[in-house]
Design a protein that fits this description.
The structure is a homodimer of 206-residue chains. Chain A has 206 residues and is of the alpha/beta class. In chain A, the strands form three sheets. A six-stranded parallel beta sheet of chain A has the order 7-4-3-8-9-10, sandwiched between helices. In chain A, β8, α7 and β9 form a beta-alpha-beta unit. Chain A is elongated, with a radius of gyration of 20 Å. The interface between A and B is large, with 60 and 60 residues. The structure holds a DNA duplex (24 and 24 nucleotides).
DNA sequence: TAGATTGTTAATCGATTAACAATC
DNA sequence: TAGATTGTTAATCGATTAACAATC
């Protein structure tokens, strides 16, 4: 609905969830104020960076006493589209899939885990919370089609991703330690814990 | 052991795990060759970027036929220190902790899950794989101390992180949707799936 | 007013891309 | 040799930081 926001820089987009994470559980009443330097300090950024980032958000003039927490929350919720229901399919009913499907935060941010799929026939039919694991082919049936806009492929990522894409999924969160190739119109975000572990350990060498 | 490597740029460090992920399961025999453009294409980078990145790796002259896969693997394994045992403590024996503790890849990359801890007395004593969940205080006892160099705090991250740091942990992988404040000497890497979900969904708006 | 903070513009810094000479 | 690819240097681009005027 934003009439025209001049494209948000990549680096800013990356930081938005962090801003929200900080604002959401700030230990102050909702109509108190925060200053740039508080946010910057808490997130390990310079206050310059925060000020620059905020120019990309449609924020009410901060006056001199900083920003009303309530207002910041509102703006961030809007720009991150947190209140919009996002239908989610999880592929892979192993431990990680299970952990995700029962991950409380997802609901809090309007991610609605609709279905959990697996290729392995031994897992199909088992229960995870209130969901029954279905065969991955389910996604191509009319009932599922177009209802899911985000999916999380675990192992055999590329093959699974291909099937998801052809069935109309518009966004993929890749949890596997491989790169997924996808057409431009499909957004792929990587979230690979193995990379993060390796990154951490190589940072620790220095 | 590296006598003096001129500090690797941050951006390169970030990409190293990706290079390795690609090289490790490339579909070619080990003593075949890869070219820059193959790597670049597979990872969605320009071949310029890959070439620049590789100048930071101690790589044998590529000659004209590209790089021997075997050699690249060797170099990346070395620079990522993959063969070095890294002792790991997982804090939080919930679904995510469970998923991590049984995550096969960790072993493959020499991460040795030594202990799994929780604050919740109801979980302490339960079994996860071959490990028994222990109380978080265990980390401060002499037996555990100095044995662990990486830990993964889940919920109540900051509080837990503080306890881990005082007990001598040198690296933290933060899985929680909060920022962890830590002294300079402790390396903290964030790996928050909730951020990644929000990032994906905000990328999908445009 | 004086002090502090915002919002914006300019300067710096780093990372990516392009260009090209050197090599096989 | 001609073509292709590497390794390196230079040019571009974007992101971060610094500086400062405007505001309360």
């Amino acid at each position: 609905m934003d009439t025209q926001t001049k494209a948000m820089p990549h680096a800013v987009t990356q930081r938005l969830p962090q801003y929200f994470a900080y604002i959401k559980d700030i230990k102050k009443p909702d109509d108190e104020y925060v200053h740039f330097h508080e946010i910057a300090y808490a997130l390990g950024l310079t206050s310059s960076t925060v000020r620059m980032d905020f120019t990309h958000l449609n924020i009410q003039d901060g006056g001199k006493h900083g920003y009303k927490i309530k207002h910041l929350k509102h703006v961030l919720i809007h720009v991150l589209d947190i209140n919009k229901k996002k239908r989610l399919a999880i592929v892979g009913a192993g431990n990680l899939g299970k952990a995700l499907a029962t991950h409380g935060n997802l609901e809090e941010y309007s991610f609605d885990v609709r279905t959990i799929l697996d290729i392995n026939p031994e897992l199909v039919g088992s229960k995870i919370g209130r969901l029954t694991v279905k065969n991955i082919d389910c996604l191509t049936t009319a009932r599922c089609k177009d209802k899911i806009n985000i999916a999380v492929p675990s192992s055999s990522a590329q093959e699974v991703a291909y099937r998801l894409i052809t069935s109309g999924v518009k966004g993929l969160l890749n949890l596997a330690f491989t790169r997924i190739v996808a057409p431009q119109k499909v957004v792929v975000a990587d979230s690979c814990i193995m990379s993060d572990f390796l990154r951490l350990s190589s940072l620790m060498i220095n």
